[in-house]
Amino acid sequence: MSKARVYTDVNVLRPKEYWDYEALTVQWGEQDNYEVVRKVGRGKYSEVFEGINVNNNEKCIIKILKPVKKKKIKREIKILQNLYGGPNIVKLLDIVRDQHSKTPSLIFEYVNNTDFKVLYPTLTDYDIRYYIYELLKALDYCHSQGIMHRDVKPHNVMIDHELRKLRLIDWGLAEFYHPGKEYNVRVASRYFKGPELLVDLQDYDYSLDMWSLGCMFAGMIFRKEPFFYGHDNHDQLVKIAKVDIHQKRTVCIPLGTYALDKFSFLSLVLGTDGLNVYLNKYRIELDPQLEALVGRHSRKPWTKFINADNQHLVSHEAIDFLDKLLRYDHQDRLTAREAMVSFPVLNFGGM
Predict the structure, then answer these.
(1) What is the DSSP letter of 32?
(2) What pLDDT score does 202 carry?
(3) How many structural domains compose the chain?
(4) Which are the catalytic amino acids?
(5) Domain containing 57: what range?
(6) Structural contact between residues 26 and 77, judged by C-beta atoms closer than 8 angstroms
(7) Statement: the pTM of the whole predicted model exceeds 0.90
(8) Are residues 81 and 158 in the same domain?
(9) pLDDT tens column, 192-211
C-alpha cells in the first residue's frame, strides 16, 4: 500500500464533520443578490460568468453548475468552506440556487485574469518563479488540510498580473485524502495527469498535484504548452516515456560551450527504464496494448528542450527543480513544502 509522505493522517485526526461532505447541509443564499454580466468560460461541469453583487456593486464570479450528483456538489462546497481564507485559494462567497429549476450556483471572489496563452509567453524568469511560488503556497495549504486538488493546470490558475495576484480555482475534482483509500483515476486533465493515473494506481496522494505543477513549470520555462502532448491517455504515457520534442516553429540551436557546460551535471529525463522500475515497485502490470505502445525509449537530457526562444528562462536550478517534480515514483517527488523551502529556483535573488 502506498501512503503520502506528508500530511498522511490529517483527516484521521480531524472530526468526521470535517471530511464527511455527504452529511453537509447547504445554507442557501439569495440568488436575487447577483446579476450576470458576461460569460467568461465553460467546463465539463459548469458555466462561468462575470457577475455583480447588486447590494454593493462588487464584481464576482458566478459558477452555474450543470446537473451532477448532489454528492459531488457537496464535496466541492465542503472543500471550499474548509479552505476558505487559505493563501491563494479562491474564496467561496455564497451558494445560491434558482427557485424554479433548483440549479445551484457558486459565487466566488472576482479575479481579473489574463488568459495563460496570452500571459505565459510574456513572463520573465522572475515572474515564473514568483507565480510558481504563489501556487506552491496554495498547494501546501490544501495538502496540509488533507485535500488533494486533482486538477492543477493553467486553466485553473487565475493570475491578475497587474496586481501580481494568483488564485487556485475549480475545486470540483478535489478530494479528501485518506491513507490507503483507492481513488478514481479518471481525474485531472490529460496533459497534466501523473503516471499513477495513467497506469491505474489508485492509492495515490497529494503528490499527484506536484506532477501537474511540474508539467506547468516545464511548459512555462521551455515555452512548450502543453509540455506532454498526448492524443489520448495511452499516448500520454508514451509521450512521458519518450519526452516528445515536438515544438512548433522553433529550432533547437547549439548554445555554445559555456551554456552546455552549465548543464553537464544534470540528470536525464524519464524514459522507459524508470517507468519499469516504478511499475515493478508497485506491482503494476500494464495493459498489453499500452505496453506495446510504450515500447522502449532511452532517457533524454533536459537540455534537448533548450532553444533560442527559451534559453533565457532555463537555468540549472530550474532544471534541477523540474527534475525533482517530474518523477515517475510519486513518493520521490518534492512535496509542496519541500519545493518552497529547499530550492534556489525559488530564491528571488536571481537565477
Answers:
(1) G
(2) 98
(3) 2
(4) 151
(5) 19-109
(6) yes
(7) yes
(8) no
(9) 999 999 999 999 999 999 99
Using CA atoms, how far apart are residues 141 and 144, in angstroms rounded to an integer? 5
- Is position 10 within any domain? no
Beta bridge partners of 49: 39, 62
- Three-state DSSP state, 283: coil
> How many contiguous H segments (helices) and E segments (strands) does the chain have?
13, 11
Query: Beta-carbon neighbour count of residue 203 at 10 Å?
Result: 17
**Domain end point (choices 53, 85, 109):** 109
154 and 184 co-located in one domain: yes
pLDDT of residue 73: 97
Same domain, 104 and 45: yes
Q: Report d(CA 344, CA 125) in Å as an integer.
A: 13
* 39 labeled binding residue: no
Question: Looking at the structure, do residues 249 and 124 belong to the same domain, yes or no?
Answer: yes
Strands 58-65 and 300-301: unpaired
> Under a CB-based contact definition with an 8 Å cutoff, are residues 312 and 125 in contact?
yes
From 53, 87, 109, the end of a domain falls on 109
For the stretch 260-284, pLDDT in tens is: 455 544 455 677 888 999 999 999 9
Q: What CATH number does the domain containing 32 carry?
A: 3.30.200.20
Output the pLDDT for position 255.
Answer: 46
Length of the chain: 351
Percentage of the chain exceeding pLDDT 90? 79
Residues 120 and 99 reside in one and the same domain: no
| Rg, Å, the chain Cα set | 21
